[in-house]
Amino acid sequence: MLEQLYEWIRGIAYFMVFAAMLDHVVPGEDYRKYIRFFTGLLLVVLLVTPLLKLAGMGGEILSLYRGSAYTEELEQIREAGAYFQDIGSAEDPGGVRRKEEGRDGEGNIHVEDIRIEE
């Protein structure tokens, strides 16, 4: 138990040293406030993580994040697929239409005829 406590405190100390170095490296006050805000959020997460593990909620919060991230990515993939499907079904710019003969076993498309309408 004490070893875990020491490890937790050591991790916080390393993070504080890293945050201080990052704060000194960033030029200008404009960016420093954002760096301090972000490192403050990370520090809160570092401080709360052992308490959540003791309560048995560490895995639940991670699964909630993974679930929401998965659904967001799935929605983006669906939107991109619909966009590309719309592009594929529309005529090419300039009135160029293609008539496809078919695909061979290697995934190549053989074009039978190309007509340019003016």
TrEMBL record:
<keyword id="KW-1133">Transmembrane helix</keyword>
<feature type="transmembrane region" description="Helical">
    <location>
        <begin position="34"/>
        <end position="56"/>
    </location>
</feature>
<feature type="region of interest" description="Disordered">
    <location>
        <begin position="88"/>
        <end position="118"/>
    </location>
</feature>
<dbReference type="InterPro" id="IPR014245">
    <property type="entry name" value="Spore_III_AF"/>
</dbReference>
<dbReference type="Pfam" id="PF09581">
    <property type="entry name" value="Spore_III_AF"/>
</dbReference>
<protein>
    <submittedName>
        <fullName>Stage III sporulation protein AF</fullName>
    </submittedName>
</protein>
<feature type="compositionally biased region" description="Basic and acidic residues">
    <location>
        <begin position="94"/>
        <end position="118"/>
    </location>
</feature>
<keyword id="KW-0812">Transmembrane</keyword>
<feature type="transmembrane region" description="Helical">
    <location>
        <begin position="12"/>
        <end position="28"/>
    </location>
</feature>
<keyword id="KW-0472">Membrane</keyword>
